[in-house]
């Protein structure tokens, strides 16, 4: 069943203002179908972990992060049970330098407050007043939010897709690329070459990124670090913390305190 917002967006021929936001956070709603918008979408989780899936990859946004979704990009959204989202919809004609593909970007304290303040404005705010100037500042901050690379590239090759699908279901799996090659009746060298060619990562680095991104929703739910480490395939807590620090620049505890 569609929410009133979803139906309203479907019925819109154009945005009522170049920057269109929600006045209140949406409760969690898993959209199990692929869809697209004629506008740019900027989705930010107030709480919980937001995930956007496209043909190119999985884009994971814990708190302090958001996902840019360019106009026309088919995607679906999933999130943890208590996630609350604020989404902004932006007319492509007012963006001079926006990402051409999905990105996970940082939400600074300033940007967070601007989104909150904008959400309190009427939908048809006065563009020639302080309301319009607030929208202009928000647009400027949105387009300059730094990319944080929280995405997992997904391969197009059907053999690699079998591996990727299985590992996303079971990030703790320890099967080697050699074992996968034997099952798929292809050489290990071929799989290795294709992984780099289609994802930009070696199989080992791709699996490590998968495990770390899979850990974010569990950590945000305040599960014990040791439990998360084992669930995501790490043999020890110290190994997990070291890998997490190398990728995110902080310990798991520090990351979610910021």
Describe the model.
This protein is an alpha+beta fold and 258 residues long. The chain folds into 2 domains: 4-143, Sandwich (Jelly Rolls), CATH 2.60.120; 154-257, Homeodomain-like (Arc Repressor Mutant, subunit A, Orthogonal Bundle), CATH 1.10.10. It has 10 helices and 9 strands. It has helices at residues 4-11, 109-119, 130-143, 158-169, 177-184, 188-199, 203-220, 225-231, 237-248, 252-257, and strands spanning 19-21, 40-47, 50-53, 57-61, 65-69, 76-79, 84-90, 103-106, 151-153. A hairpin with a 3-residue loop joins strand 3 (50-53) and strand 4 (57-61). Helix 2 (109-119) packs antiparallel against helix 3 and helix 8 (225-231) crosses helix 9 (237-248). The longest helix has 18 residues, at 203-220. The two termini are 36 Å apart.
Secondary structure layout:
Elements: H1 4-11, E1 19-21, E2 40-47, E3 50-53, E4 57-61, E5 65-69, E6 76-79, E7 84-90, E8 103-106, H2 109-119, H3 130-143, E9 151-153, H4 158-169, H5 177-184, H6 188-199, H7 203-220, H8 225-231, H9 237-248, H10 252-257
Antiparallel strand pairs: 1-7, 2-5, 2-7, 3-4, 3-6, 4-9, 5-8
Helix pairs in contact: 2-3, 8-9
Total count of domains: 2
Helix content: 40-55%
Spatial strand arrangement across the major sheet: 1-7-2-5-8
Distance between the termini: 36 Å
Identify the CATH class of the largest domain.
Mainly Beta
Structural class: alpha+beta
| CATH fold call of the largest domain | Jelly Rolls
- Stretches with pLDDT under 50, minimum 5 residues: none
Total of helices: 10
Shape: globular
Supply Rg: 20 Å
Task: Report on the biggest sheet.
Answer: 5 strands, antiparallel
Named at the architecture level, the CATH assignment of the largest domain is: Sandwich
CATH evolutionary superfamily of the largest domain: Regulatory protein AraC
């Amino acid at each position: 069943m569609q929410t009133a917002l979803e139906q309203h967006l479907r019925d819109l021929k154009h945005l009522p203002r170049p920057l269109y936001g929600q006045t209140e956070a949406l409760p969690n709603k898993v959209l199990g179908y692929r869809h697209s918008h004629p506008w740019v979408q900027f989705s930010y989780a107030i709480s919980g972990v937001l995930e956007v899936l496209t043909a190119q990859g999985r884009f994971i946004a814990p708190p302090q992060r958001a996902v840019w979704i360019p106009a026309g990009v088919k995607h679906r959204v999933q999130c943890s049970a208590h996630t609350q989202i604020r989404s902004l919809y932006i007319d492509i004609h007012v963006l001079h330098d926006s990402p051409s593909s999905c990105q996970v970007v940082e939400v600074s304290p300033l940007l967070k407050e601007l989104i909150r303040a904008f959400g309190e404005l009427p939908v048809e705010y006065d563009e020639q007043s302080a309301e319009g100037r607030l929208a202009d500042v928000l647009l400027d901050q949105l387009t300059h939010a730094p990319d944080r690379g929280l995405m997992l590239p997904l391969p197009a090759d059907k053999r690699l897709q079998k591996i990727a699908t299985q590992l996303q279901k079971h990030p703790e799996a320890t099967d080697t690329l050699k074992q996968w090659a034997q099952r798929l009746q292809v050489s290990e060298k071929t799989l290795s070459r294709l992984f780099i060619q289609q994802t930009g990562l070696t199989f080992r680095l791709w699996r490590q990124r998968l495990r770390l991104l899979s850990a974010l929703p569990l950590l945000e739910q305040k599960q014990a670090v040791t439990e998360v480490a084992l669930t995501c395939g790490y043999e020890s807590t110290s190994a997990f913390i070291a890998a997490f620090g190398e990728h995110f620049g902080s310990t798991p505890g520090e990351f979610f305190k910021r």
